[in-house]
Amino acid sequence: ETPKQAEPAEASTPAPATPAPVTTLQTPKSARDDAKSVASARSGKSQPRSGRSVGSGGNKSQRSDKSPKKSPSKKKAAAVHTPATPASQAEPSPEGCVPIFLPEPTQKIVGLAVPEGEEPPQSPMHFVPKQVIMDDIQNRAAVSEFKEHLKTLNEIETEDILLVADPDWKYGANFLMVVTEEARAEMLAEHTGEEEKEEEHVVLGYVPPQPRDWIPQGSDREIREASVSNSRPQFRLTYQRRRRDFGAPVSLADRNVVDAAPSKLVKNQFIDVQALEDANRSTTDIPITEKDQDVQVAPSSDSAAVQTFWGNPKNAFTQYEARQLSQAEREAQLELPELIEAGRRTAPLFEQSLQQNEIMNCFYDDYTNLGGDGILFSKTDNTFKEFQTFTDLEHSREKAVSHIAWHPTLKGIVAVSTRERYDFDGMVDHSAKIVLKTSVIVVWSFADPIQPQLFLEAPEDVLCFEFCPSDPNIIVGGCINGQIVLWDLSQHMDRLKSTKAKGRSKKVSNMLTEFVKTDSIPTIRYAAASSIELGHQAPVTDIMWVPDHFEIQKVTGYALEAKELKNVQIISCATDETIYIWDLRSAKSNNPVFKREEDRCPMGVPDTFWHLHLKWKPFLSVNLFKSEPGGNHNPVKVSMKEMQGDRSVLTKEDPEGKDPTSTNRGDFTMPGGPKPTKQRMLQKVSTFLYVGTEDGELVYVDWMPQKDQDTGKSQTPKPVFYSTMHDSSIKHLSRSSFDRSLVLCVGGWLWTLWKEGVNSGPILYSQKSPKPLTGGCWSPTRPSVFFITRADGSVEVWDLLDKTHEPVLVQNISANALTYCTVWNISHKRQLLIVGDTQGTAHAHKVPFTLHTPMAGEAPSIEAYYKREIQRRAFVMGRWDYREHEKIELEAKAKREAGIAPAVELTPEERLLKMQKKYEAYLAEEMTFLRELGLKDDDDEPLPAVE
Amino acid sequence: AEVEETFKRILSHKGVIGAIIVSYDGIPIRSSFAENDVTVQYCALIQQLAQKAKSAVRDLDPGNDLTFLRIRSKKNEIMVAPSPDYLLLVVQEPNDQP
């Protein structure tokens, strides 16, 4: 039974005040009842109507003694145990009702007994069918309690009898039988009302839980631990101050403890707060006692499926065709009245417009034909603006810039060569020092003005060098010792290209990295140097590539068509009185490249030209014989008419000539390369060279050798002419890119302008400049403009269309003498002039807008100007001849006048000669006279001459 | 015949490269261009342009209508005269010098 007992205790919240389950009832019904009674006991209220509740507290011990079988229901128990006391106080039963005691068996028979496990009906009213009672009387006869009431029962007319339970034995029995109609109605009315009231009472009867004693289960300790309580009574402090001290003036000042007077009063005014240092406890020693940590579990795998519609791929296309009318339809359309009407109406409009256009060209654009000069000229933009300066402290300082060249394809790459500034004697004096120095060409990029990109190592100082136009990786240079040197940059091309890109990106990045960066600058050794014995014997002063569209034939010097279109020949000149022509495809190089171990080229040097190294020799030499005895001309500069890239000669030569497009870098190691089967002779190529000499002469010479009459040897003919306009060495000699026959020659204190074909003299020459001129160059964009550098560090700009008597602009660029200048056209908006000075610095300057933008109609005007100058030249020549004659005549006349007493007596021979001349003149006159008269025939024998 | 005469007269003007009569659907009816593709291109493109121009003029003022369209280009001038059912098109090249 124990679990049964425990059950109700568990169901209802254990109430400490109530003694643990006392009931021994077994049925769930009684258990529930018991719980109910327990609950009511706990709430301290007794149900006023239920008698069992009243006595439950006291009855408990008695009830527990009873056997469970004996008291199946509460009702029974109440009925059994309570009658004694209230019986004496029984009230008279209400009218129309008869109290009746119904024992349990009877209750069962009439159906009043509540079956086990069921709640006793709330209402005390029980309707029992009359027949049941009648049957009971019949069946049990005298035993039936209803027997004595048979008479009254018979009087009842209703079908059922109302029995009202009277558990309190109020009327002396446990039931009250209603017999009359009135009583029945009354009872029903009363009880239904009571019933409703009772239901209400049940709803309201829920009592809120009452406070109970609290049983500590451990949480009190937690609360106590979490709460803060005073461990000691709180301090109470009172600060006091005299009333008069409030608001009194105070003076504050800094004071030191040490300085303070040692009186106790002062000392007490200081509170020294020392920093607390607890050596035992540092913050790191405190252990971590608490830690926040989170763990979340996520599914490690997931399966999903997607299904798509698969369409069968198909090739499909749609093509439209323009709609067309058939011929018949067209003709039919043309006859339609609408069309005729439309034509009639619109034709005048067309005629009007067409005539308008015929009268005036509406497409004439005034703006394009507007003169560009003067309008865009502003004061701010007519000087050179410094752009960048390149100088290498190690290699170029204290040396003079000898040559500057722009990379032909990569923008912003410029190579600068330098030379010692000593003259010949100085070189000898300082030879020990010079030998120790390495000579290099410094390659710069505009992206990095601080660090050079490459060094090209040379055996000696380089005086001149040129990039190969068809293969910019190759550079040829002329050294001061007479050697021609070749470099191959192909291995380092990436560096030049990448630095360009790197420099661009660096501009946005931190400037500091530019200086921090210390990757070594590669030094490129020359790939080959020419033979010392067979080459020039003096400093090589000028070098140039033969344009790629022709090549010069060996021995004969003919210009042959070059089918491969690559630059393989070089013209160089040196002060050893020779001009040499070299070929990269040396015929003497057919010996194996690596024949001997010592011949193997050094590490890191491309073997492109190694077969030429120290064996290379010129295949043709041009000598500059002077017309008169006294040695030969000493060339320093050379210029030829044919220009790289200008292939018009090829097409001129051969109208049906094929398009020269194929350009491939040939293999230089192959001797002779793939020789074209037949090379055309290019007759139109001018084989004449303008040569500037050390003595300031300009020599015009044909490089093609001719057979000398005297010796039978094939050698360069004598120059066509030479002129000595310049008073010192020629510094610059170049042809205009617009008119290749125009030659600018700079040297000494003046410049001269020559036109090929006009040999009598320059078509224009400047007055003597205050300073020696050191270099020059043509503007690549304006045919009338050229730049001249001076020894005082200034640049002169000449615009022949503006002024011919003085430069349009003189601007000082460097404190040192300038040595070289060249112009590069970066874009149609920007042009850079780069000049070198004697300190080894290359100055890049922006050319002002007006000086690089061609004016409208500039080319025709300058051409006309040159034409006028040529005519003037011819006229001058004519006048000179005339004056010469005049002078001779005048002299003769003066002589004749003075003939009475001639200063010099004529010798007899002279007199005879004179007389003979006179006689011949007479004969000629007579002859013409006779011929005019028709007396003399042409085929007649002339008169015998007088001996 | 009358249309043909007008057509010839227009063609006889100085600088006229060609003329086309186009139906309003853009189908060439009479063309002086030798190449068919040129004719078709002119028809298709100019007809659309003319229609666009016409609708623009009409949108601006419903009472207005396009009568003539001149397109000046760098190389030549295209003149278009739209009528309800047809489109006349003339291409003229200007004189070289004024």
From TrEMBL, chain A:
Molecular functions per Gene Ontology: dynein heavy chain binding; dynein light chain binding
Subcellular localization(s) per the UniProt record: Cytoplasm
GO cellular component term of the entry, any: inner dynein arm
Cytoplasm is among the record's keywords: yes
Organism: Macrostomum lignano
UniProt keywords, alphabetically: Cytoplasm, Repeat, WD repeat
GO annotation terms (biological process): cilium movement involved in cell motility; inner dynein arm assembly
InterPro entries membership: Dynein_IC (IPR050687), WD40/YVTN_repeat-like_dom_sf (IPR015943), WD40_repeat_dom_sf (IPR036322), WD40_rpt (IPR001680)
Cited SMART domains: WD40 (SM00320)
Bias kind Basic residues: ranges: 69-78
Basic and acidic residues bias (residue ranges): 644-659
Main localization (coarse): cytoplasm
Segments for region (Disordered): 1-98, 644-678
Gene3D superfamilies referenced in this protein's UniProt entry, alphabetically: YVTN repeat-like/Quinoprotein amine dehydrogenase
Name by which UniProt lists this protein: WD_REPEATS_REGION domain-containing protein
Low complexity: compositionally biased ranges: 1-28
UniProtKB/TrEMBL annotation, chain B:
Origin organism lineage: Eukaryota, Metazoa, Spiralia, Lophotrochozoa, Platyhelminthes
Keyword Cytoplasm assigned: yes
Subcellular location per the Swiss-Prot or TrEMBL entry: Cytoplasm, Cytoskeleton
SMART domains, A to Z: Robl_LC7
Cited function: Acts as one of several non-catalytic accessory components of the cytoplasmic dynein 1 complex that are thought to be involved in linking dynein to cargos and to adapter proteins that regulate dynein function. Cytoplasmic dynein 1 acts as a motor for the intracellular retrograde motility of vesicles and organelles along microtubules.
GO cellular component assignments: cytoplasmic dynein complex; microtubule
Pfam families (UniProt xref): Robl_LC7 (PF03259)
Protein name: Roadblock/LAMTOR2 domain-containing protein
GO biological process: microtubule-based movement
Family named by the database record: Belongs to the GAMAD family.
TM spans (from-to): none
Residue intervals of the Roadblock/LAMTOR2 domain: 3-92
Source species of the chain: Macrostomum lignano
InterPro entries, sorted: DYNLRB1/2, Roadblock/LAMTOR2_dom
Keywords linked to the UniProt accession: Cytoplasm, Cytoskeleton, Dynein, Microtubule, Motor protein, Transport
